[in-house]
Amino acid sequence: MNATRPNARPTLLVTVRDSVSLCAFDVETGDSVGIAKTGEEGVAKPHEFAVTKDGRTAFTSIYGNRGYGTNDKPGKQLGIVDLETMTTTGMVDLDLYRAPHGMDTDRDGMIWVTAEVNRCALVVDPDARKIARSIWMEAPVHFLAQSRDKKRMYFSHKEIPFVSVVDIERKQVAGRIGLPIGSQAVFVSPDDRFLYVGDFNRPMLHVIDCATNALARTVPLKAVPGWPYATPDGKYVIVTTYDEPNDRGYVEILRAADLSPAGVVEAGAEPFHALAAGDGRHIYVALGDGRIPKIDLERAEIAEDRMKANGTGAEKLMIVPR
């Protein structure tokens, strides 16, 4: 986030699926400072979100009634949340486009969102509150990640064995990167050299060389990955993983220099997004049970566990000024 405000306090935002909310916490105290309902309980749950360039408004993806593979009532809206008042002010109707999920904001302030059912990526004008462009991806599309230079958007396709690369300026598919099988979430390294890709159903992290658009190496993990994340200082790569048969979630910490293991934290629930706390040592992790613990990367342990969302299914995290 580049937006700044006088006397702004850092605020942690998190989507909470089962209470259909976007929640805000004061980072310094851990206290809840706002809850915006943005969906319909049991019918239309928010999964991810993006924030406008001025930092004042969030758009949430209303994915549908269930998770991937069981979402039999896919949503067709984006929720609009005023971040100053933490109130929902409206919805963007996506018309025929269904199951919006992954989201990000490009350098021009446009909101990108996947439309899984339609095999498209959408570019939404946040001022006009309507679709400005659709991009045909040819495969169901779920997650996305933007390069640091804001020139490329990468998309993963779950079971489909490739990652798509889209030219942001031209808003066209620029290429595909083959994988052994499908993929979960994707994340670009701080130096734009690598794309980290979670394997779809095996305990593996794939590393793509962004210069050649080719798979460079695969790193074994303790459990099946959900979300990879690289700390801004370039020191660590974090992968949240889940052993579904045994219902055990982990935060796996790798040294970015060689991707060697630096530690594993047992999370106590399925982990979703990770996010740097801003002090160079800690990260926050969203858990399926609604907790958002702070993890010490050097000690590989939970340092604080005081934030708890107003329901289960915490997913995406972002820190903004408020």
Notes on the structure:
With 322 residues, this protein is an all-beta fold. The protein has a domain at 1-121: Methylamine Dehydrogenase, Chain H (7 Propeller), CATH 2.130.10.10. It is 0% helix and 55% strand. It has strands at residues 10-16, 21-26, 32-37, 45-51, 57-64, 74-82, 87-93, 100-105, 111-115, 120-125, 130-136, 143-146, 152-156, 162-167, 172-178, 183-188, 194-199, 204-209, 214-220, 224-230, 236-243, 248-255, 261-266, 271-276, 282-287, 294-296, 301-304, 314-321. The strands form seven sheets. The chain has a four-stranded antiparallel β-sheet, with no helix packed on it. Strands 4-5-6-7 form a four-stranded antiparallel β-sheet, with no helix packed on it. Mean pLDDT is 95; it is low at 1-7.
Essential attributes:
28 strands, 322 residues, four-stranded antiparallel sheet, Methylamine Dehydrogenase, Chain H, disordered N terminus
Lay out the secondary structure:
Elements: E1 10-16, E2 21-26, E3 32-37, E4 45-51, E5 57-64, E6 74-82, E7 87-93, E8 100-105, E9 111-115, E10 120-125, E11 130-136, E12 143-146, E13 152-156, E14 162-167, E15 172-178, E16 183-188, E17 194-199, E18 204-209, E19 214-220, E20 224-230, E21 236-243, E22 248-255, E23 261-266, E24 271-276, E25 282-287, E26 294-296, E27 301-304, E28 314-321
Antiparallel strand pairs: 1-2, 1-28, 2-3, 4-5, 5-6, 6-7, 8-9, 9-10, 10-11, 12-13, 13-14, 14-15, 16-17, 17-18, 18-19, 20-21, 21-22, 22-23, 24-25, 25-26, 26-27
